[in-house]
Please model this.
Amino acid sequence: MIYITQKGDTLDEIAEQTGVPAWKIVSDNQLLNRNKIVPGQALLILAPGEQEGTADGLRAGGYAYPFIEKQVFETALPPLQELLIFSYGYTFEGTLVPPAEDELWMIEAAWENGTRPLLVLTPFSGGAFNNQLVKVLAENVEIQERLIGQILITVEDRGYAGVNVDFEYILPENRQQYAEFLGRLRSRLNEQGYSLSAAAAPKVSDDQKGLLVEGLDYELLGQNTDTVFLMTYEWGYTYGPPMAVAPLDKVRSVVEYALTKIPAEKLILGIPNYGYDWMLPYERGVTRARTIGNEEAVAIAVQNGASIEYAQIAQSPWFVYRAGGMEHVVWFEDVRSIQAKWELVREYGLSGAWYWNLMRPFRANWLML
Model:
């Protein structure tokens, strides 16, 4: 069960009421201080030996960099069917560029856990997405063939199970060429028994404007890949106004549009494993939110004696606090908001959900899966 703490609750009283030892509640929820809980805090309650199984029968996965902390990685890996290793890049000439740190240890750990490791391909240049790299690749079949050949060699040599293409800011004039590149890559991968998925920024209509979406044709993506990953997060973001990172009503709108273009069994929902802390008042172009982990968010609330609220439409937790004479607002994810997203996956018959990303601890989430 998920227990929502009330004013005056103590951990010992919750333990007595639920029949679950206090030490286990502390461990499962990574509580920093067993004597400090705040109203509105969502606690995952699992009896010793009990498993929740929220993602049973569905695909669960997550992105991770090779420099992930081993303990964080080992906690997140057990319930995952797919591990997406971020990331390989490529040059303007079509030469594949490996991650800065060797990822072989992650591939081996994934297989030992029964998890499929996937190579993530991005058009990264100087630490940012470069749509000129996409443009050159999309418009030149010779460069595509060179890159595809190197991808196939790397997938086999390193022991990957497939490829995930995460291209962003695709130019509108390249939308069909990009999809055709995916089709060529998928055909070559499938011939060797490997899969291809592609990440897609969230859209709600065919004619939606914006740098992230104008180069994406959901129908073509669905036709040219095995799976499409919907990046259903970042409504609340670093430079934007305070709001939920993945409000469920917004997520639902994206899923409903995607289902008009792509079969449900080919769609994977995106779930954020992070939140943001905004300093108030918010001023566009000036305010910059701080990215925080979901466990860190609760720790901030506890440290500052803040009560956690829950937005019913967005299905997301939030709270305000004061520190250093300044007011802050925090939006994040907890086990009930995560559960709501998995319920949406089941409601629409989607294939599953992947997390961006695994780099921050969220033990209760992985136990719930």
About this structure: The chain is about 35% helix and 25% strand.
